[in-house]
Amino acid sequence: MKIVPDTSAVIDGRVSERVEEGTYAGADILVPEAVVSELESQANDGRDTGWDGLSELQRLAEFADEGEISLQYLGRRPTSDETKGAREGDIDALIRDFAAEHDATLLTSDSVQAEIAKAKNLSVEYVDAVVRGSGGLIIEQFFDDQTMSVHLKTDTKPKAKRGDVGDMHYRIIDEEVTGESTMREWADDIVNSARASPDGFIELSEPGMNIVQFRDYRIAIARPPFADGIEITAVRPIVKTDLDDYEFADELRDRLAERQRGVLIAGSPGAGKSTFAQAVAEFLNNSDYAVKTMEKPRDLQVGPEITQYTALAGDMAKTADSLLLVRPDYTIYDEVRKTKDFSVFADMRLAGVGMVGVVHATRAIDALQRLVGRVELGMIPQVVDTVVYIEAGQVHTVYDVTTQVKVPEGLAAEDLARPVIQVRDFETSTPKFEIYTFNRQVVTVPLGDGGEKSETGVSRLARQEIEREIRSIARGHVDVELKNQNRAVVYVDDDDISYVIGKGGGRISDVEERLGIEIDVRTHDENPSNKAPGVGGSGGSGGSGGSPSGTNAEPSGGLVVTPEITSRHVIIRMDGHVGETVEVRADDQYLFTATVGRGGDIQVSRGSAIADELENAIDRKMQITVVPA
To answer: What keywords tag this UniProt record (predicted)?
Structure first.
């Protein structure tokens, strides 16, 4: 009797089982090298099936040594292309050809393999596949009514997040440390049960990582070398809500039911974003909208009428193409994170599909800002018109997003009008933020009550832009003072005045035209805020007591200096101190240590980290001092 077992029969241990019961006593067991190759590949990937199959081959070798069977390894190893095509049946075909060539009976627990072999008139013995796993969820013992997630890892105590939504606590739930053998047993049971049970499926299977969906549990299993030990993280929703459970329920219902919209549901991890998204999905489904979901992994707890789609061939763009043929009214996209996710979200929304995306963000406005640079600025309100921020399981903030052509808040010149994205509080219609382009940059400006700019809004932005422009022209220090929305005063060194203004005022006029603001150029001596000792003024020969040029004696023994800023360097004059090692400080805060050069000065190249710190200190009117190191 010649028997050729395929990979499935070897993995399930069906050959040794028949040898032990006497069915294959004295049989010639011919193992194709293709089977060995496939088991080796699975074992290298860390899959238990590979290790089980190798253990079976070792048992067969023991039977052969005892004379109960004859064991031979024959045939050729599959090529790399055939190995890659294992899922398409390339290796199964090799095994069938091997059995036909040796006029042997094919033993298999793969029903498809058996049917094809019968169709080719081969001798086939089919045995039922071994059911692996307990069929249940072995780690369910760690969950109670208030447990959102369980966290298990080799050589650690089991932990869980328990509590109410928004008030979760990470705590030890068992004082006994979990050993590696136990973790391996639990991990194998979860994967095998998911494969065998109609209640579960494998969402992702990669070397070192499995993601399993089993009933309402989402379970991530990490193994070495991907992780430094076996880790199991199981998550499940602890509440299922209705839209009526949230603030603004009536307004949100009317808004969503009015027409297809673009909505971002934002919040920090564990805040309850997905729970709210489920409530929105159920409401839309009950409002005669065709609703689908896009999830990877699929863990939203929605009714059977809502079909849940995952990444098709690992690509959500392909899922989107398929969904456009299905023609949903609304699609729930859980989780929108990467640039490609935002692109898919925008494409579907612009195709007319209502989109609800779940986004990680620590503030409501942050969710909208994640679209900047990923979606053309002017299209953002067409892609997202509503932002819902969830905190501690409740609706904290709702923003209405629109676009207008207007002069941004804080500016007044009519020729500065441009498309502005206005973000308003949904409840009060008060403007909260404006997003627009300013000097080729996209900026988000927070607004105060009534739409007035805050201290960190347009004024700061305008001042920074003016300072940047003038610094590119001036050779020395630059100060900027905003007088009003349309006028600024720039203070520069005496010898920079004519250079900044330019011949016939042409250079400063160009800057005014670029920035859209009137600029008055003056010297530092004319700056009312620049009269502190050691700052501004004439400098020149310095003070009494033989202090070096640009310095004043300080009672503490340090020297107050006035650094000079040129196009390439920040220079501190230290005449009479050549070769000394000194510390440079700002308001007595240490900046750096330097040695005075042979020219009697310290030079720091602009653009370096040290120069940036020094210039920032100068801009903040901090007192620059030099003390012996």
So the answer is: RNA-binding
Residue type at 491? Y
- pLDDT bin (cut points 50, 70, 90) of residue 551 is very low
- H helices of 332-423, in order, are 339-350, 364-369, 380-383
Q: Which domain holds residue 604?
A: 551-628
Residues 275 and 361 in one domain: yes
Listed residues 81, 106, 126: the one ending a domain: 126
Distance, in Å, from the CA atom of 229 to the CA atom of 178, rounded to the nearest integer, reads 12
Q: Which residues pair with 162 in a beta bridge?
A: 147, 169
User: Between the CA of residue 140 and those of 123, 168, 236, 629, what are the distances in Å?
Assistant: 45, 19, 11, 65
- Mean predicted confidence (pLDDT) in 587-605: 80
Question: Between the CA of residue 71 and those of 4, 36, 75, 355, 605, what are the distances in Å?
Answer: 10, 13, 13, 61, 78
Quick one: average pLDDT of 364-374? 88
State in Å, rounded, how far the first CA of the chain is from the last one. Answer: 93
Residue ranges of E strands in 385-463: 386-391, 394-406, 418-425, 431-438, 441-446
Q: pLDDT tens digits for 459-491? A: 666 777 888 888 878 877 888 887 766 788 888
Specify the CATH number for the domain of residue 468. 3.30.300.20
pTM score over 0.90: no
Name the CA dihedral angle for 83, 85, 90, 92, rounded to a multiple of 10 degrees: 70
Is residue 478 a contact partner of residue 471, using CB atoms and an 8 Å limit? yes
